[in-house]
Amino acid sequence: MEKHQIVYANRVIEFFVERKNVKNVNISIKPNMTIMVSASEKVPLKFICDFVTSKGSWILKNVKNFKQVQPYKQSEREYVSGESYKYLGKQYRLRVETSSEEEMVKYYRGFIVLMVKDPNDRARKAKLMDEWYREKAIKTFEESLDKQYSLVQKYGIQRPKIDLRIMKARWGSALIDSSTILLNSELIKAPKHCIDYVVLHELIHFQYNDHKDGFYNMLYSFMPDWEKRKAMLDEEIVREL
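The structure assignment produced for this chain is given below.
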């Protein structure tokens, strides 16, 4: 991986270039605000730098948005009615209701409904929301694994288990030795077709533990539009996290 920089609007933009077997030059901003560019070995560095320069306005805008929005959403959540929460690629309004019986979170008629005994107990509300997201993530990720595993099973790949973790710079990781796919718990906020891409990507690593031609040939054969899914995940969903 190569590190380079360009100057745009008197600002230095640093980015990393990863050479891959891809048809297009792709740019994405990771959750930790690292700017990544993927391109084939045949693409000259000057072309890549010109491409990044052409995207300078977009890069600066989204890095700024990420800096401003992410800390606010993570540190200033009050878990009150009207707040917006992302789930499977869509935004939903939160509705907080007082419950004298069971405390729970549920999806109901376009709202995420948080039922809690004490609506002023922020810590309790946060815990209930985290548990709900995790429960939904486990169910959704397992369903995705069932679907994607059916594609690669014929290659003799053993069905891995899934584990969740909050990760700053990646959506997933294949732990070959323990036969585990580690997924970013924040991935539950992405559309299902983006989740499918991440799961398939990590599954293929159990056949090709690298990013060489074999890996991408298999990925293209099973998911020809994987680059569009990845772009949506990196360029759109990450801004909501």
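Interim note for the steering committee: The radius of gyration is 20 Å. The longest helix spans residues 122-152.
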